[in-house]
Amino acid sequence: AEAALLLGKVLAERRQWQEALAQLDAAAAKGARLPRGLREEVERQLRRKVQDAEEHRARVAARERGEVRALRQEARRLRSESAVLEQQLEDLEKRVRMWSNATAVVAGSAAALLMAAMLFGGPSAEPESVASTAVVEAPVASAPTAAPAEPAAVSTPAAPVVAAPVETPAAKPAAVATPSVVPEEPAGTVVHTVKKGETLGHIARQYYGKSSQWKPILEANRDVLPSASKLQPGMKLKVPR
User: CATH says 122-240 is which class?
Assistant: First the structure.
């Protein structure tokens, strides 16, 4: 009993209240007389210790609950930001696809226009070609009207012999007026003067409406143009009508 009582006092000094209370109860059960108020003080300290432990656990639990709430709020915020970023990423991907398609369309259109320009030539040469056609056709159209006039003047020498020498000098200026345009060309042929930058395809499009009809022009001018690559500015070509 004395040993249990002594051990209980030692444990109480060490603030081991639960073990001290057990030893004091054992000493009292064995007949030892406990100091007055010792057991009550040990019980009071034990209750305080238990209360402090519960309060500590409550504070820890509250802090943990606060941290959990903060983490949940942070997780919700991050999820909302992630959703916004995903939406922005989808919009950017749509824009990239749209601009890629637009770029492909523009590139294809530019390539098609370039190929058309290389195959058919520029449209700016068309007015000049039409103007040159009008200029060339003007003397050609007037030449046939002048040609019949010459035989009319020559047919008069059926009159007296004295009139023939007088009529002949008057007919010479008419022959000089149109020496190199039409007299030697067959009917239905137009003489075209080649301009700089023109090809047989351009000339065929001017007269026939199709640039692929250039072979008849080449065949009609074999004497001055052995091949289409020999075409030079200033050449006079016969264009069959």
Answer: alpha beta
Measure the CA–CA gap between 185 and 33, rounded to whole angstroms.
159
CA distance 179 to 164: 23
Q: How would residue 119 be classed by pLDDT, with cut points 50, 70 and 90?
A: confident
Q: Are 210 and 163 in contact (CB under 8 A)?
A: no
- Where do the H-state alpha helices sit in the chain? 2-13, 17-29, 38-120, 125-155, 163-177, 200-208, 215-220
The HSE-up count of residue 42 (CA atoms within 13 Å, CB side) is: 25
3-state SS class at 25: helix
- In sequence order, what are the residues at sequence separation of 6 or more whose Cβ sits closer than 8 angstroms to the Cβ of residue 238? 185, 189, 190, 191, 192, 217, 220, 221
Name the pTM for this structure.
Answer: 0.31
pLDDT at res. 23: 81
154 and 164 Cβ atoms separated by less than 8 Å: no
Report pLDDT digits (tens) over 189-223. Answer: 889 999 988 898 889 998 988 888 888 898 889 88
Q: What DSSP character marks residue 177?
A: H
d(C-alpha 110, C-alpha 125), whole Å: 21
If you write DSSP's letter for every residue of 209-240 in order, what string do you get?
A: S-TT--HHHHHHTTTT-SSGGG--TT-EEEEE
